[in-house]
Design a protein that fits this description.
four-stranded mixed beta sheet, 14 strands, 203 residues, elongated, single chain, alpha+beta, 4 helices
Length: 203
């Protein structure tokens, strides 16, 4: 998913608090020219819309800065908020990315279906990882990674190395990391223990 955002160059000497009172959120662009950065402002309403559609280190943002004649693809790198008012955005950082650049991102894992081990064998789904750190180029950023879990049986475990990653995308963690498992439920264990006890008494 790509989001389009328009910013303006921040005037020198402008104070962040004063900008916020004017309905503008301070922002910065990094990576467009090596280590240099550009100080920007983005309308608060635009920032709110952006944060509803984009995720940090996941969404590609087409950034347009008309008064600098700059336009390019960026990644939403950081969002600073008020210490206790999570709805108050203080600062937004963008990082420019060029074609072929390798990016370190984090994408959500989306589970599809219900495991056989849960529906038919009375097990419990234990999810260990809900998102995955990945490396990819800007043209291969997945919105999420879908995992079909319907075939998993009681006692099965799914590892990072078994995830269905698309071409150009690689996991940025060890392949033996467990993503999820199908565990025996406590109720099932209790029933098994009771059955064993009854069989012992009968014997």
């Amino acid at each position: 998913m790509t989001v389009i955002v328009e910013c303006q160059k921040r005037q020198e000497g402008s104070k962040p608090k004063a900008l916020r009172r004017e309905g503008l959120i301070p922002a910065s662009l990094y990576g467009h020219q090596g280590s240099e950065s550009i100080d920007l402002t983005i309308p608060a309403k635009v920032a709110e819309k952006l944060l509803k559609e984009a995720s940090v280190n996941n969404t590609l943002v087409d950034l347009n800065i008309p008064d600098l004649s700059w336009k390019g693809k960026t990644i939403l790198r950081e969002v600073q908020t008020h210490p206790w008012k999570s709805t108050s955005v203080y600062h937004i950082s963008f990082f420019a990315v060029s074609a072929g650049t390798s990016l370190d991102l984090v994408v959500p894992l989306h589970l599809v279906g219900e495991p056989y081990g849960v529906t038919q064998e009375g097990g419990v789904l234990d999810v260990v990882m809900t998102e995955l750190p990945i490396q990819c180029t800007r043209d291969n950023i997945p919105d999420s990674i879908e995992i079909d879990i319907t075939h998993l049986k009681l006692g099965d475990a799914l590892h990072v190395s078994e995830l269905p990653l698309s071409e150009g995308v690689s996991a940025h963690v060890e392949g033996d990391r467990i993503v999820l498992t199908i565990l025996q439920s406590r109720n099932t264990e209790k029933s098994t223990d009771e059955e064993s006890a009854e069989e012992g008494v009968t014997a």
